[in-house]
Design goal:
The complex is a heterodimer of chains A (116) and B (114). Chain A is built from no helices and eleven strands. By secondary structure, chain A is mostly beta strands. In chain A, a hairpin with a 2-residue loop joins strand 7 and strand 8. Chain A starts with a strand and ends with a strand. Chain B is an all-beta fold. At the A-B interface, strand 4, strand 5 and strand 10 of A face strand 5 and strand 10 of B.
Chain lengths: 116, 114
């Protein structure tokens, strides 16, 4: 159990376009989901915390107008990278915490975004 | 601001040897996580340590947590090549309970050679 999926697994887009990444908890309900980004050979950095039915909380330095997060249900959060630029190219990983075991955090397989 | 430091950042060792990875963090926390990451992949959860003195073992890996010293260790016993990966420790940003975003260490890139 406790599977988190992401879609797409990789995406290439042109500069100036927008890309939506989906994060789903497949077999549990997640009140809270998190979005991280990871640059090559670097660690993970928390971008934002997403709570179902409320606005996301963004970390300092993360542009909320550029990285739009929607958590419309207990099993789905989406991250939209708007007007993407090459510097947005990264590995985006979501995680989800179950309602019943909030100390657990299950990670999705990640989405590799390349902006050309 | 919470800081999480791992050392070493890079470790090359021979099969059959033992070694320890250290993780220090700067603020109070009673939870600590260890993850493994293979190249091009996401994170695989290894251990969740939930209290002072917690010790967990899985195969050749054993993790412990000392909340007073703000230190966790990941010990590798009789290393095998399959354990080659990058290992991350992570700590919740806030010391309160509940779901919270994690602050990660920089990771330890482990290479195990025959």
């Amino acid at each position: 159990g406790a599977v988190v999926s992401q879609h797409p697994s990789w995406v290439i887009c042109k500069s100036g376009t927008s890309v939506k990444i989906e994060c789903r908890s497949l077999d549990f309900q997640a009140t809270t989901m998190f979005w991280y980004r990871q640059f090559p050979k670097k660690s993970l950095m928390l971008m934002a915390t997403s709570n179902e039915g409320s606005k996301a909380t963004y970390e300092q330095g993360v542009e909320k107008d550029k990285f739009l997060i929607n958590h419309a249900s207990l099993t789905l959060s989406t991250l939209t990278v708007t007007s993407a630029h090459p510097e947005d190219s990264s590995f985006y990983i979501c995680s989800a915490s179950p309602r019943t075991f909030t100390y657990e955090q299950y990670f999705g397989p990640g989405t590799r975004l390349t902006v050309t | 601001e919470l800081k999480v430091e791992q050392n070493p950042l890079f470790l090359s060792m021979q099969e059959g040897k033992n070694y320890t990875i250290y993780c220090n963090y700067s603020t109070t926390s009673d939870r600590l996580y260890w993850y493994r990451q293979d190249p091009g992949k996401s994170l695989e959860s290894l251990f969740v340590l939930l209290s002072n003195g917690a010790v967990k073992q899985e195969g050749r890996l054993m993790a412990s947590l000392d909340t007073k010293a703000r230190l966790s260790t990941l010990h590798i016993t009789a290393a095998v090549h399959d354990l080659s990966a990058t290992y991350f420790c992570a700590v919740p940003r806030n010391s309160g309970g509940g779901a919270d975003g994690l602050t990660f260490g920089k990771g330890t890139h482990l290479i195990i050679q025959p």
